[in-house]
């Protein structure tokens, strides 16, 4: 299945997906890596990996979010994408794009949703004193970090953790979880994939 990746930064989750997709047995082929930031390290990584890349700079569209998303949608269609993985894509999407890709767009979020949607999840987990933290792969809907959960991974919060230490522990699980969740998603019956709750990495 042709799958596109949207990112804005470092691209370590994109790397995990790209590496997984090198295995001919993996059900996704990465058909495009697209960034809203032309200088995103993740975009350069994808170029080095020999994949098709596009930069569609949101700054060139001013306040016109719709025009930016139309350009993204056109690029996704042109690449023949059948599903999209958000991997550190740091702009909120409008209903135009979430509706266009409803049931076909995945996101990874660095917390065990529905706890800690939004930013600074590791700091907030430490403040809240939770003993388990982790990450979630979910289908993208209109609401930020909402949408049916496809898989989750948990890590312990250790006594002397800093936000950075916790983030690194979670990130390792993200890199394991995202390819697993994508494979699971692509090989399940779409009607039952969401909420199948089958995917737990502990
Ligand atoms: C990850 O923590 C991901 O969960 C969040 O943004 C970060 C992206 O990191 N959505 P990377 O660009 O994949 O390295």
Q: Care to describe what's here?
A:
- The chain has 202 residues and is of the alpha/beta class.
- The chain has helices at residues 12-21, 41-48, 65-78, 95-100, 121-128, 163-187, 190-193, and strands spanning 2-7, 29-35, 53-55, 83-86, 105-109, 132-139, 149-156, 199-201.
- Strands 3-2-1-4-5-6-7-8 form an eight-stranded mixed sheet, with helices on both faces.
- Helix 1 packs parallel to helix 6.
- The longest helix has 25 residues, at 163-187.
- The model has no long low-confidence stretch (mean pLDDT 94).
- The site of 5-O-phosphono-beta-D-ribofuranosylamine has 16 residues, from helix 1, strand 5 and helix 6.
Give me the number of helical elements: 7
Detail the poorly predicted runs.
Answer: none
Amount of beta strand: 15-25%
- Briefly note the structural class of the backbone: alpha/beta
Shape: globular
Bound molecules: 5-O-phosphono-beta-D-ribofuranosylamine
Family: Belongs to the GART family.
GO molecular function: phosphoribosylglycinamide formyltransferase activity
Keywords: Purine biosynthesis, Transferase
Function: Catalyzes the transfer of a formyl group from 10-formyltetrahydrofolate to 5-phospho-ribosyl-glycinamide (GAR), producing 5-phospho-ribosyl-N-formylglycinamide (FGAR) and tetrahydrofolate.
Outline:
It catalyses: N(1)-(5-phospho-beta-D-ribosyl)glycinamide + (6R)-10-formyltetrahydrofolate = N(2)-formyl-N(1)-(5-phospho-beta-D-ribosyl)glycinamide + (6S)-5,6,7,8-tetrahydrofolate + H(+). The chain is α/β, with parallel strands linked by helices. It has helices at residues 12-21, 41-48, 65-78, 95-100, 121-128, 163-187, 190-193; strands at 2-7, 29-35, 53-55, 83-86, 105-109, 132-139, 149-156, 199-201.
């Amino acid at each position: 299945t042709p799958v596109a990746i949207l990112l804005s930064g470092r691209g370590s989750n994109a790397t995990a997906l790209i590496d997984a997709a090198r295995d001919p047995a993996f059900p996704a082929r990465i058909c495009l890596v697209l960034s809203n930031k032309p200088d995103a390290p993740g975009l350069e990584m994808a170029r080095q990996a020999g994949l098709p890349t596009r930069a569609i700079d949101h700054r060139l569209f001013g306040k016109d979010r719709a025009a930016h998303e139309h350009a993204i949608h056109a690029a996704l269609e042109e690449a023949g994408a059948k599903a999209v993985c958000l991997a550190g894509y740091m702009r909120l999407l409008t209903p135009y794009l979430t509706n266009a890709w409803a049931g076909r767009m995945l996101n990874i979020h660095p917390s065990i949703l529905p706890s800690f949607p939004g930013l600074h999840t590791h700091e907030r987990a430490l403040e809240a004193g939770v003993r388990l933290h982790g990450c979630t792969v979910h289908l993208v809907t209109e609401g930020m970090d909402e949408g049916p959960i496809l898989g989750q991974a948990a890590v312990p919060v250790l006594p002397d953790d800093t936000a950075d230490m916790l983030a690194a522990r979670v990130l390792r699980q993200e890199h394991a979880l995202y390819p697993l969740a994508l494979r699971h998603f692509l090989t399940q019956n779409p009607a039952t994939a969401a909420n199948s709750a089958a995917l737990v990495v502990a």
